[in-house]
Predict the 3D structure of the following.
Amino acid sequence: MEKTRTLFDLQRLYATDPIEADRLVFGRESDPVTRRGFLRNAGLSAMAVVLGGSVVFAKDMPAGLIPALLLEGGDEDLLAKLGKDKGLIVLNDKPFNIETPAHLLDDDVTPETRMFLRNNGLIPTAVDVNTWTLTIDGEAVERKVSFSLKDLKTKFSHHTYRLVLECGGNGRAEFDPPAEGNQWTVGAVQCAEWTGVRLRDLLEKAGVKKNAVYIGYYGTDTHLSGDQDKVVISRGVPMGKALEDETLIAFAMNGKDIPLAHGFPLRLVAGGWPASVSGKWLKRIAVRDKVHDGPKMTGDSYKVPIEPVEPGTEVPEEKLRIIESMPVKSLITYPKSGASLVPGQKLNVRGHAWAGDLAVKEMHVSIDFGTTWSKASLLPPHNRLAWQRWSAELTFPKNGYYEVWARATDSEGHSQPMVVPGWNAKGYLNNACHRIAVRVK
Ligand SMILES: Nc1nc2c(c(=O)[nH]1)N[C@H]1C(S)=C(S)[C@@H](COP(=O)(O)O)O[C@H]1N2
Ligand SMILES: [Mo]
């Protein structure tokens, strides 16, 4: 965990006073007004030593920007017992919260071993598949209905979709003032292939009344206090999202039973929205006649200011909105940050892009800190709400240190910002451009 802690120290230093951090780390002098760094000889060579090459577009490098090379985390030890790849990063072990470095998210379909893990409580220990039932009830159903796992698997048609699940707090580590909670950097996102029945088909059996507004899920995880009666988290979605084709009650992931840590034996999956609406270890769905009010639906949980606010502002509840569709975002999954090239070598970079309920329309890359951008090629999604593969061939003008930045644009024309967007107290929805370090020498 040592390396991770060092990373956060560096991030905190840069977060509190980036100009001073630059001076301390690199001896870099900056213009406090334009925030352009003046890499005078001493600073330039200090940075070149640390990065293993001089910064080719140094004149374009914003002051107070932590070089992407130094953002590499990694924890080689603690993961085997959870069935996770050794390259993942343990952010918390009570409860387990584990993130995936970008270069381990290169697969089109994220395997279990490389899937981030986010728990608010304790993973259930005993799951009896023979007695497991899913109940649908609530103020806005005609009748309460229950299904066994066998009912679900044999009495309804099956559907399979690749769905992006991204934690609402992915990117939280970059907010300033910092937000409490797991300090996710970029890897709290995955796109697995889920198989199950449509929630819509089950709701039809219960009979949805005209006054239905929202659904809320209930799972069987245990509250951290150990109190069996306390609900850990119970979130949901408005009826419109609940009734979509792709909203599933899933019993399989990547062609097998859902792994225990990810919701075995049953999970609500609603792609494109914060992954917190996709309830694991699903036992019950309530159809509500008002916005669902379970734990983590109320107060400031999974809410952001309706209007932008100055960082650090306290925002009253009535000026917050519940996060729905997630914003446009992308990752560079190849190469791993820190890649080395020989002079003249071309680099094929690639990654994924996604945009909540929308599709990604365009993808761009930059090697000069966002001064100029070139268009990348972009594939359509495998199905609606799956991420999209993008790739680009890059050439570098001379030896030195570079950063590759990637920027997606959604079907409504919204692009990723180059810096951390809209501050909010809980650190949600950071969709700033992902960047990696590349050295030519
Ligand atoms: N029952 C239950 N469902 C849950 C959670 C939880 O703690 N308990 N965490 C939610 C949150 S905040 C996220 S980001 C995703 C994480 O899914 P994963 O662990 O399969 O990656 O599950 C969601 N569903
Ligand atoms: Mo989350």
